[in-house]
């Protein structure tokens, strides 16, 4: 597959899942708008690395996706810099866990603002540009928690269910515009944050990382295997191809069988 000549904007792409997606899209030739938090020098190095390795143009936006005006600015800057936004991947997200009665109001507001409202505002800004070209791909990174629930994750589960819902609405509205809208629903993904959690659990419980990994995975997934950010990137890239041009409005699990229970 080739995405040469396309421009992809991936929120939350300076680390983790978003970075994996960004790398795969760049490998397929897409020019790249990176977004997220981190050390400025490291982000600059990342831009240079991706750009030189894949011979693509890169641009970094420090937009805070909890702020609608900053999202609009990011999309406008991408349009000015590269001439279009063909692929929008709404990936940025945060997590907080607590029982409902103990869940801080400010944490609820923050999770909803980034994980759900940020997706809405990203689509609202990008859709007019895609309509002008008669082509676009919007991929919203939801979660297995967009389809099923877990305790202590009320804001995250509510937001990710909402992402699946607005994906369906957008797909219906845009069905005959050349724009598809889908939601990817990952299960457990091996990221640096998860690696640290597993190491901490092993130290706390006096066990091995391997034992904690198996227990962590099989608590939810029949398949005792992590999904990698690059696998999520590969699914994202596939959804951008002509082969996927009639896949729209779909919540697509990539979760080791989690939601098959």
- Total strand segments: 7
From the spread of the alpha carbons, the general shape counts as globular
Instruction: Kindly identify the CATH topology of the largest domain.
Output: Rossmann fold
Structural class: alpha/beta
Tell me the name of the CATH class of the largest domain. Answer: Alpha Beta
Instruction: Count the DSSP helices.
Output: 8
CATH homolog superfamily of the largest domain = NAD(P)-binding Rossmann-like Domain
Content of β-strand? 5-15%
**Fraction in helix:** 40-55%
How would you sum up this structure in a few lines?
By secondary structure, the protein is of the alpha/beta class. The chain has helices at 16-27, 40-54, 68-82, 105-133, 154-173, 192-205, 209-218, 229-239, and strands spanning 7-10, 31-35, 58-61, 87-90, 136-141, 179-186, 251-254.
What report would you give on this structure?
This protein is α/β, with parallel strands linked by helices and 261 residues long. The protein folds into two domains: 7-189 and 228-254, NAD(P)-binding Rossmann-like Domain (Rossmann fold, 3-Layer(aba) Sandwich); 190-226. It has helices spanning 16-27, 40-54, 68-82, 105-133, 154-173, 192-205, 209-218, 229-239, and strands at 7-10, 31-35, 58-61, 87-90, 136-141, 179-186, 251-254. Helix 4 (105-133) links the parallel strand 4 and strand 5 (136-141). Helix 3 (68-82) runs parallel beside helix 4, helix 4 runs parallel beside helix 5 (154-173) and helix 6 packs across helix 7.
């Amino acid at each position: 597959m080739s995405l040469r000549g396309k421009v992809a904007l991936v929120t939350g792409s300076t680390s983790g899942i978003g970075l994996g997606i960004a790398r795969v899209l760049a490998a397929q030739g897409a020019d790249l708008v990176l977004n997220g938090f981190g050390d400025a020098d490291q982000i600059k190095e990342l831009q240079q690395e991706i750009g030189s390795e894949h011979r693509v143009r890169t641009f970094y936006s420090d937009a805070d996706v909890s702020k609608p005006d900053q999202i609009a600015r990011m999309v406008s800057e991408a349009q000015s810099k590269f001439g279009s936004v063909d692929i929008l991947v709404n990936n940025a997200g945060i997590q907080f866990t607590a029982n409902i009665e103990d869940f801080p109001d400010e944490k609820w507001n923050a999770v909803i603002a980034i994980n759900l409202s940020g997706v809405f505002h990203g689509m609202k800004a990008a859709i007019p540009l895609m309509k002008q070209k008669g082509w676009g791909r919007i991929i919203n990174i939801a979660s297995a928690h967009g389809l099923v629930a877990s305790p202590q994750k009320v804001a995250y589960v509510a937001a990710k269910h909402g992402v699946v819902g607005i994906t369906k609405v957008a797909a219906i509205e845009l069905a005959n515009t050349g724009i598809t809208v889908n939601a990817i629903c990952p299960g457990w993904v091996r990221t640096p944050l998860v690696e640290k959690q597993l190491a901490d659990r092993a130290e706390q419980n006096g066990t091995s990382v391997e034992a904690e990994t198996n227990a962590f995975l099989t608590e939810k997934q029949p398949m005792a295997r992590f999904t990698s950010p690059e696998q999520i990137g590969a699914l994202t890239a596939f959804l951008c191809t002509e082969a996927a041009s009639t896949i729209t409005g779909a919540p697509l699990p990539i979760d080791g069988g989690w939601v098959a229970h």
